[in-house]
Amino acid sequence: MKLICIGRNYTDHIKELENEKPAEPVVFLKPDTSILLKKQPFFIPDFSDDVHHEVEVLVKINKVGKYIDKKFAHKYYDEIGLGIDFTARDLQSQLKAKGLPWEKAKAFDGAAVVGKWLPKTKFQNINNINFSLKKNDEVVQKGNTELMLWKIDELIEYVSKYFTLKIGDIIFTGTPAGVGKVFVDDQLKGYLEDEEMFSIKIK
Ligand code: ZN
Question: What sequence ranges are listed for the domain Fumarylacetoacetase-like C-terminal (predicted)?
């Protein structure tokens, strides 16, 4: 399986990193080895001094598809989740400055937190879900899927032009503002509406 990640999908986060608003979604992949194992802490890798949390709504693909029209995209997922796209921001900035790929900063072991899954039927409207991240019990990131530049069904249409979607693939839909550095002993907890979706200790 693969993790398909979207960058720059919330205006407030684009401003915070002083990026330009893209004309098309920014897409990158993480391998399955980047998924943080259940109940394990996240270890800050030795090649970075500036690992950031990016909380993101996740979509799990339930059917094989290619060139999926956004009208039919809702048939390709039943579950919504929440995760973290951990990013070695120092390394990413160096790679970006050189025009090089981001993978070392985004796809390393443990860089993808995948929390629990909820049936999408739990939500009245997929495009109006509140989510948040607490660091040591303080809210540091807050978003609503309504604020995505490209909504979930549009993202499925877009990424399936390039990649065949397979059962179990996960889409990371981008992060809102409030990304920040993690420190040893931090505790990160993610919420979809009021439901706790993951709890991660930083080591
Ligand atoms: Zn991200």
Answer: 2-201
